[in-house]
């Protein structure tokens, strides 16, 4: 994807060329491979369904099968860090290999770790996933803003420098999320709308840095559940953050690609539907995994037109 333009600042004499921004790389991947993110969620029941042991060997076999089947054809792969961490250091080593092999095959890797903290701790989390020198270096990271959006600044800054992206929890589909995300602030806006507003500001700043060059999509996205039929209302009527919208909930959680226009409105073209079990249940047969992913991606293309 070397033909993707980079910010004007990258071309100043004497400075190294900055990496292509995540939003530009994501837009190109979605346009060429289809708008789909497939989760790599090796939980115990799925390992059993595949005939694998609930151990490091089963974890490795599962993850490698998904990468070999899908990394050269889907836009985004999203490993869920917790399912690797539960095996300790050997599980994290499998995660490192999974990330590296998926990126080498051409997929963008979104690390689903939902990190959120303050100060130097947030900076350390950011370095773990967004520093190119890290063995867990990924194209993007999920983060939680519920210690205050400003607490994410170390991740925002490192993502900008490294050409990575962030997906910030905004309107999640779990029932417990509403008590925080739908709470109304003194200014009359919901917490979710406030988070979306901050993302719009970060993407506007990124766009300004491109100084008139073509820049198709911002690098700072939101997580908005595809099962939320009232997502537009909960967001204060707008999901227009000039960035991607990661939409879990397609398949096992009950949403379908046909639901996306009603949930996301005018922002539907920036939606990245995220599917895990809906694809993974077809394993361990690689051809069946590919067919399932291709079918969902095609259904999304039809729906978002």
> How is the biggest beta sheet arranged?
8 strands, parallel, barrel
Tell me the number of helical segments per DSSP (H or I, 4 or more residues long): 13
The CATH architecture would be Alpha-Beta Barrel
Binned, the helix content reads 40-55%
Order of neighbouring strands in the sheet with most strands: 1-2-3-4-5-6-7-8
Order of helices and strands: HEHHEHHEHEHEHHEHEHEHH
Cα-to-Cα separation, first versus last residue: 25 Å
Could you tell me the mean pLDDT?
91
User: Low-confidence stretches at least 5 residues in length (pLDDT < 50)?
Assistant: 1-16
Count all strands and give the number. 8
CATH superfamily: Aldolase class I
The tally of structural domains comes to 1
Description:
- The chain is of the alpha/beta class.
- It has one domain: Aldolase class I (TIM Barrel), CATH 3.20.20.
- It contains 13 helices and eight strands.
- Strands 1-2-3-4-5-6-7-8 form an eight-stranded parallel β-barrel, surrounded by six helices.
- Strand 6, helix 10 and strand 7 form a beta-alpha-beta unit.
- It is globular.
- The N terminus is likely disordered.
- Keywords: Decarboxylase, Lyase, Pyrimidine biosynthesis.
- Pathway: Pyrimidine metabolism; UMP biosynthesis via de novo pathway; UMP from orotate: step 2/2.
- It is an enzyme of class 4 (lyase).
